[in-house]
Structure formats: C-alpha cells, structure tokens
Here is the input.
Amino acid sequence: MALTAPVKEAATSAQVTRQKTIGYAATAADAALAPFSFERREVLPRDVQIEILFCGVCHSDLHTARNEWQNTIYPVVPGHEIVGRITKAGSEVTKFKEGGLAGVGCMVDSCRTCPSCKDGLEQYCIPGFTGTYNSDDKILGGVTYGGYSKTIVVNEDFVLRLPENLDLAAVAPLLCAGITTYSPLRHWKVGKGQKVGIVGLGGLGHMGVKLANAMGAHAVLFTTSANKKEDGKRLGAAEVVVSRNQAEMDKHLDSFDFILDTVSAAHDINAYLNLLKRDATLTQVGAPEVLNVSPFSLIFRRRQLAGSLIGGIAETQEMLDFCGEHGITSDIEIIPIRKINEAYERMLKSDVKYRFVIDMGSLG
Ligand code: NAP
Ligand code: ZN
Ligand code: ZN
Here is the structure.
C-alpha cells in the first residue's frame, strides 16, 4: 500500500494562543443550560473573530443538548445560526474586514479535498465536516463550541456575507433553517407550476413555506396545529391542511410534485408519501430518531424517499443573496439567553412563532 504524507496542519494546538470567552452550555442530557467559561483560539492568518450579536435556536440544538442522537460530548455549547460583527481579521483574510457583519452556520471546516468538498458540498464531506458545535476541534483539540456565546473564531472560507437590507436578528435563522429548506427545494428543482408540500410549521417549515412560495411553487402547508392556519397563509402557503383531519388529507392523494418533511418528532411518514404523484419525491429534513416506512407507499407509484443535510457554503451564500433580493427573513421571537431553557420547553410544545433568536447582548 502506498504511503501518503499527512496533510500539513495550518497550526497545531501547541502553537495556537487561546483567549477566554463565555457562553451557555448543557453539562448532561438532563441538565438545564447554564453559564459556562471556555476558550477560543486567537485568530490564525485566515481566521476572523466575530462578536456574536444574535444566535437562532434550532431544534437540533435541543436534540443535541439532550443527547437525543446519542452523540453528544458534554459540556456542549449549542448554536449554529450565528450573526455578528467582525472584531478581528487575520493577516491573510481577503473576504472580510473588521467592523463588517458576518454569519456562521452549521459548519466551521471540512477536509476540503474529498469529492464532496471539491463539489462545494462540504456538508457531505466524506471524512466528516467540522460542526460548529459538538465536533472534534482540529485546531485547539477538544470539542467545538457553538453560538450561544460571546465570540467565535472561524476560517473565512466558512464565514458568510449577510444581505445588508434585512433585519439582522431575523437573518440569523437563515444560516440553518433557511439553507436546510432552500437546498432541497433547489436540488429537486421546485418552481412554477408545481404543487409542493411543506410538513410542519416550525423554524424549518416556515422558511420552507416562504422559500417555496418565492420560487413560484403552489405551496401547501401540513400542520398538526389548527391554530397555525392563518399564519401558514400569511407566510405564503396557498393552502393549509390540518394533518389530523383525514378527510382533508385524502383530498390531496396522488397530487404532489414534491414534499419537504421538517417534523422533529416521530410521525406517520406514509401519510405524506401517499400524497405524492407517480415518480415524485418526499425529502426528509426533520430528524427524529426513527421513521417507519411502508414499502407499499413507495412501490405503487414508483415514489422516492430522500434526505437532505443543510447545504454547502456556496449554496448558503446563494440562499442569503436570494433572501436579500426577495426580502425574506425568519419570523422571530427575541429572547435573552437566560430564557433558553424555557424556549426549549416551548419548542417541544410547537409553541414558537417561528424561531427563537437569542440576543447575545444579554449574556453580559
Ligand atoms: P421546530 O421549530 O421545533 O419545528 C418542528 C415542527 O414539527 C413543529 O413546529 C410542529 O409543526 C411539528 N411537530 C412537532 N412535533 C410533532 C409531532 N409529534 N407530530 C407531528 N408534527 C410535529 O424544529 P426545527 O428547528 O424546524 O427542526 C425540525 C427538525 O429538523 C428537527 O428534527 C431538527 O433537528 C431537524 N434539522 C435537520 C437539518 C438537516 O440538515 N436535515 C437541519 C436543521 C434541523 P406543526 O405545529 O405545524 O405541526
Ligand atoms: Zn440547525
Ligand atoms: Zn471533504
């Protein structure tokens, strides 16, 4: 077998200087999030340091804080919908300047050499991308810590430019909820003349409704919450179906060109597969631990079931630019960081309209 030279690291953990910062962390699956001190690296030549102004609250933060995917390394500082101001730029940074605004989503690095990275699909990096939190920190050692914190230091290749015409706090959720819905809608070429279903009106779902509508599709929202009907229409759904009502569901059998399922908990996915036309696709982005699929839901109309993970850096930039052009932001409720545990409980009750965003100034 041929030997290959190890990839030269930009810096090893011994050479990197550290600085203290603070955030909120969970220390166990059943522990409330609480203040936590930790270290970030000082900027390396291609890094920017960002003072975090706002951070969105994704259901993945909750799944991770509570170890629902059985992969959490404690303490965990969640948060991957980060917007803020650049307070320091390394000597070789070309895309950003001190004082400017910037965003960070779910990834802070990847191998950069595998076929997925070469295709600009870093989210499918074969050795695995470095997540903004709960990943191996390849530079400092230990684990990466996310956006429920005062500052973050990220290589500029994984930092996004933000549209300047949009409300900054309401842009934060685009960094995960926005790209996670934009990417599959684009990949499956959603557009004019198509009937597209969005399942679940939470953080992802409400972005899915807005984006599918902006792409010209006839968007149909499926919700378990009858009280979200009006909001669904206001957000851009041409029709809203309360999925607990079987008669309403039956009206849509065999009629969809595409369905995007954003539901965070176990549910009957076959009920939605049966609404697809022949050869159409349902893409799962919501991530409950298990979903039971009946083969017959697929076999009888040659239907397809797919999944999709966030989006690559280039596509995230494309999505932000698209939102800038179309005036699209998230509908948000701003909270101080001390209310994060309460926000998690409300998210579990589907009581969020439609994304909590933490005002990081509240961290003190
Ligand atoms: P969220 O704001 O909590 O929204 C989830 C929505 O799902 C709820 O608002 C509710 O909508 C519906 N729902 C919840 N429990 C349900 C149940 N038992 N049965 C049926 N519907 C239910 O969560 P989110 O932040 O949008 O995240 C959604 C999921 O996507 C999470 O699992 C998250 O981890 C995952 N995610 C995946 C990716 C990816 O790359 N694939 C990226 C980010 C997040 P209604 O009230 O309208 O029914
Ligand atoms: Zn997320
Ligand atoms: Zn890679």
